[in-house]
Task: inverse folding
């Protein structure tokens, strides 16, 4: 998942209006970015490992 296919418009609009809360960000990020980027059915993932890393490009 790299977020490149996601729709960031709602997040940006809330940010620019000074109305982006943590809850709003989470809701829009899941629905508008993650689901758009990797598809439906992504709920309920579990990570069985003890550590992970994130790479930002």
Result:
């Amino acid at each position: 998942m790299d977020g490149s296919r996601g729709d960031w418009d709602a997040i940006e609009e809330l940010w620019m209006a000074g109305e982006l809360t943590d809850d709003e960000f989470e809701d829009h990020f899941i629905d508008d970015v993650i689901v758009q980027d990797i598809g439906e059915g992504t709920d309920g993932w579990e990570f069985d490992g003890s550590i992970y890393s994130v790479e930002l490009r």
